[in-house]
Design goal:
The chain has eight helices and eleven strands. The protein is α+β, with helices and mostly antiparallel strands. It has two domains: 82 residues, Beta Barrel (OB fold (Dihydrolipoamide Acetyltransferase, E2P)), CATH 2.40.50.140; 156 residues, Recombination protein O, C-terminal domain (de novo design (two linked rop proteins), Up-down Bundle), CATH 1.20.1440.120. It has a five-stranded mixed beta barrel. α5 runs parallel beside α7. It starts with a strand and ends with a helix.
Length: 248
Amino acid sequence: MPRFKEQAICLRVFDWSETSQVVVLLTEGRGLLRGLAKGAKRTSPSSVARYSGGIELLTLGQAVGTIKPSAELATITEGDLQQPFAYLRRDLKAQHLSMYAAELTGAMLAELDPHPRVFAGLLALFEALADPARRGAAMLAYQWRLLDDCGYRPDLGRDVKAEAPWGKQASYTFDARGGGLTAAAVNHPDAWRVRRATVELLRAVASGAEPEGDAESFLRANRLLCVYLRSLLGRELHTAGVVLGKKR
């Protein structure tokens, strides 16, 4: 059975028994990993030594275990908590955004398919959420990186219907089914009118430049990527309301 020792961000955790937990981890080298952490909830000295700090939701740590090809879950044998991101538990907005990012990551990635850029991006997002002024830009950068790494990078440089480059326009239509912008009329529910300012903000993110805009501009751009991701997934995530502005 292959043994692993990985940096891991905990995306989801729930009780399996009185002493064990099932966890969903985003690991740096192996991608999404689902595992059973046996004895993680025990308080005996040996269990505390193996799971220093426990395995908690929305934390960074080091996970050790084994993967058996025939088993549905990996076996987590050790866990070392390294960064608890305590502010995610003190600030409700930061917590909601981190929960959306965690749910989105789990929905977009296949198991045991490494995405080190996504891992680094999620870690950077969690760190940025400590500063309210950086949250809009950080969430936009993470959603873009996830789309890019999964092969769904939106096409912002040409008309996806006309197959031709274009200049600057006052507004655009984003066609989710076409994967980008168009000036053509699109008559299906997965197409939305988009302001030029929103497109320019996305183009800045795509180029790797530091995007500049007010809170409302980042909100519009994040909403666009959120509904694009909803279209790709074929469903709305439970936590998407925090980005879309819906009351739940």
